[in-house]
Amino acid sequence: MKKRIIFIITIVSILSCSYPSEKVFPKDKWLEVKPEEVGIDSQTLNKAVNFLKLNSGRNGIDELMIIRNGRLIFKGDSVDKVHGVWSCTKSFTSTVLGLLIDDNKTQLNTLAKTILPEMAVTYPEVNLFHFSTMTSGYKAVGDTATTGYTHGSSSTPFSPGSPPLFEPGTKYAYWDAAMNQFANILTHIATEPLDEFFKHRIADPIGMNEKAWKWLDFGEIDGLKVVGGAGNKSNGIYISANELARFGLLFLNEGNWDGTQLISSDWIKQATKNQVPVKLELGSHLSETYGMGVYGYNWWVNGIQANGARLWPNAPEGTYAASGHNNNKMFIINEWNMVIVRLGLDAKDVTISDSAWNEFLGKIRDSLKNR
Question: Is residue 36 part of a domain?
Fold first, then answer.
């Protein structure tokens, strides 16, 4: 009898320490719960949030959202504020590529010249894989160095420049003009503007408020409106933290939204793991952003850098992020079933370094119960 009582007490104890992990998807609004309801210690979480606030600029944690198990456990006061997120746009651009591959309209090895004949002379071997991994070597007419912004600043990104930065696949160069030309190519494959394509394939099905996001464009090229694929020139994604978090939750669930597969899980797995060999050299002295070992298909991943260390050693190996100028960041952490969005406009105050992000993630890790 005594053993039976002990057994029952043990089972009750286990059940009382379990947390809801079933998949939950927001309707009009997120389901807000206390951190403890999803296995997070509030006091330790607050330490992480306060650390981020102290290491941010004027926007602090105003646009911070933390989602676990599909439930909102922290939000700042300005999560509905809409503004540009710069290079976070790149992750949207590669998502369109994934959708077009799902539709059998293109492949990673599709040569750019088969879509845009003007690429044939200088860039005959560049394919879509190269564009999505920043290994194309593409530069545009007008890509000349400017103070503080040298990585593909051309206002004419659709005019192929010569000579290339390097032969495709041989080096890595984070280059905005290449990403804008990438968007141009994808638009021609989709035969419709990418903002409209993304809206009906992803944004609407996951409930993104159409008044809280938009994708700005360069105007028409060959009769088709071409949005900015890079996020520069004010022609990228404008969005709130609230809506961006939905996009993150879709990826956390490997493309499935409440039972509907919107984009293949295989694509998401490939897009969010390293695709750039760590041994590659930097392709241009004008771009000192190092993606070797830590870059997927326009997503930053927690891979091994040239120095042998992970990008964010305090976070699980499977962590990945969309990242943009002005401290705009979205982390997706599969092992913790978590999405973290921090948006802002405060890089002039301070740039949040990978070291600071890593320490913040370490404090989030410490808040997890039963980890």
Answer: no
Q: Is residue 41 part of a domain?
A: no
* CB-CB contact of 34 with 42 (8 Å): yes
Count of domains forming the chain: 1
Where residue 307 sits, what CATH number does that domain have? 3.40.710.10
| Centroid of chain to Cα 347 | 18
Rounded Cα gap, residues 227 and 225, in angstroms: 7
Q: Would 31 be classed as within a structural domain?
A: no
pTM for the model stands at 0.95
CA 317 vs CA 61, 313, 368: distances in Å: 25, 8, 16
In a domain, 67, yes or no: yes
Per-residue pLDDT at 144: 83
Domain coverage including residue 127: 48-367
Averaged pLDDT, groups of 10, the chain, 371 residues long = 45 48 91 98 98 98 98 98 98 99 98 98 98 98 87 95 98 98 98 98 98 98 97 97 99 98 98 98 96 99 98 98 98 98 98 98 95 64
Tell me which residue of 131, 257, 274, 135 sits closest to 202, measured CA to CA: 257
